[in-house]
Amino acid sequence: xxxxxxxxxxxxxxxxxxxxxxxxxxxxxxxxxxSLLFVAExxxxxxxKDLLASLDTVETTPSLSARATQVFAYSxxxxxxxxxxxxxxxxxxxxxxxxxxxLNLTKAIETMEWNRETQSFIITGDASTVERFKTILTSLDGxxxxxxxxxxxxxxxxxxxxxGSSVLAELKTIARQLPQNNVQNQxxxxxxxxxQWIENTNALLITGPAYAIERIQTLIADLDIPLAMASRRVxxxxxxxxxxxxxxxxEGMLKAIPEMNQNLQDSGxxxxxxxxxxxxMTYTPDTxxxxxxxxxxVLKKVEDIVQQIDVxxxxxxxxxxxxxx
Length: 325
Known about the structure:
Layout: H1 2-11, H2 18-24, E1 28-30, E2 35-37, H3 42-55, E3 70-74, H4 81-92, H5 100-111, E4 113-115, E5 120-125, H6 127-140, H7 143-149, E6 152-158, H8 164-177, H9 183-193, E7 196-198, E8 203-209, H10 210-223, H11 227-236, E9 239-243, H12 250-266, H13 272-279, E10 282-284, E11 289-294, H14 296-311, E12 318-323
Antiparallel strand pairs: 1-2, 3-5, 4-5, 6-8, 7-8, 9-11, 9-12, 10-11
């Protein structure tokens, strides 16, 4: 019954996919195994799993709503999901623990889940709580939030070493590599696309939010280096690192390293070379070791990250760090 109500609720839910609504209504009960059978696309199945997990729980607080009767899927439009989560956590601390509506809202916030594949929040609760949640999310994710953070500014960067067209090409390559799962990265990529090269003074005119301009300045400073250093940096990109775990099982490392890479990208960090080096990981079962490629500077960061995953602050077991052959 609750799942059917979910299907009806999804029809009026912003961000809900038709495939999910259809999949909910294909549910068949298998009495012998006390299980449910769905026929749907993989993405819809992933969302349904999250919904079922939120519905298939034991209610431990009778004074609260007896059962979650609605599911609300919300995809942020202007504010990153991490900022919304942080704001909701702050809101919880201001709610009245003696108020049933506030307790219901607290529970809905604490059980809210972020679906990375669909880039949306999954929220469950009684009808009044869900309506209240919608109002809160709208206030946290309105266009005025973007305007406040993304007030336009400009900066004229005078290049010292490299030609503007070369630096601009590198910046656009970086912009294409940025994960577009949060507003900050989207604004940085847009600001890079809008950079103008003033050829007669070899300067770059940057426009956009203050934080985007600041990060782009950092990127340009890293690219605007003497030609000899730039050539050496290109050669350094063929270096490699071999890491042999000291304490953690290789299977655990194989799972933890990509998760860390994704978490770093989700955090808003801009370091495409680091992301690429972590993604270059290959595992050699014969020696139980991991191989990464990249520049020495980036590989040092990779070493620190992998060592932390493996043994915390203990010394790493590095077998080789040098030019690839």
